[in-house]
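Re: weekly structure request thread

Next one in the queue (400 aa):
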Amino acid sequence: MTKSGLKILMLSWEYPPCVVGGLSRHVYSLSVHLAKAGHEVHVVTAGNEGLPTFEVINGVHVHRVIPVNEQDESFLAWIAGLNLAMAFEGEQLAKMVEFDLIHAHDWLVGASALLLKELLSIPLLSTIHATEHGRNNGIHTEIQRFIHERERQLILESDHVIVCSDYMRESLSSIFFVEQNKISVLPNGIDSASVQVKVGEIFPKLKQRKYIFSIGRMVREKGFDTIIEAASIAKQRNLNYYFIVAGKGPMLANYQKQIEKMGLTEYVNFIGFVTDEQRSVLISGCEMAVFPSLYEPFGIVALETMVFGKPTIVSNTGGLQGIVQHLQTGLLMNLGSAQSLLDQVTYLKENPKKSKEIGTKGKNIALSLYGWKRIASESANLMMDLVLDRQIHENEGILR
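Done, posted below.
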């Protein structure tokens, strides 16, 4: 650690422009704000033939590697090959940069993180964004058990662990029996947002139409079945509610077929993948947002709509319930309940003044408590404590 700041080796299987989920944006924003604060950040991540193997993006040194068995159809084999390539890249980088610590994100980079910790003899800090146990409400298959054990290994062998919410800290304590003092809660962050174009310019069909927005990966735990059920009830009651749901994932085609079969195309539309710009435009043009997740360790998507001043409805579960205070900074709906979702939507539609007030309070809270500059600063302080603690123990060993 120098006077100019820390030298951080960050490991993440995804990094923009490769975006699979929220982890990519988290690592990007954290690394950029750490670099802005004067720290030297090197991110090692997965690459492909269309991307440069190295570039500096907003002050962050981005190193992309190709998995050893890139064409393997087995995801677990692909991840194993990625970790081999990441470990080799990290070892080579360490010959040129004297890193202070390693920061790993989730089990997907756990193997390379643990190997590099041993090779470089520096602290390992790991951020656990979600757990396999939480995503599946338990461990039921061999693949889930494999991932669960990789999570356990990374958590137990890390010098310290970061989670994004009190809910996640309790989860790690109960699932993996981790001592509370080994876990720090640092929330995901958000930056202020604005758009220069109106939604009708990019999505002409929405030019004169009011809509409720949602976005997420098309998987069961995001609770989009609840939105479809709510749309069906809205149709039965002749309510003029229209849901726009963005995102890609394995269940997208199934949802689209389901809507067609149920005759709900005038009430809900799953539009698939959208760019970051399109997402922001869709948020800026919506009446309100809803995130009916069945499992959500934190809920960065809720913050993304709140910073636009949009009243946001979230499930009363996980990290989401820690972000939203009911009828103050957002609204809470009962887990998996389409009727509860509709009740919150109806309340906002029937109380426009209160709806605007909730949106404004939500925006203020999001920017004051979850700004990336603040979170990056708290992350850096934690990293410095780990590095200093390691140095103290090494000095004590020399003195003995």
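The mean pLDDT is 93. The CA atoms of residues 394 and 400 lie 10 Å apart.
Next request, please.
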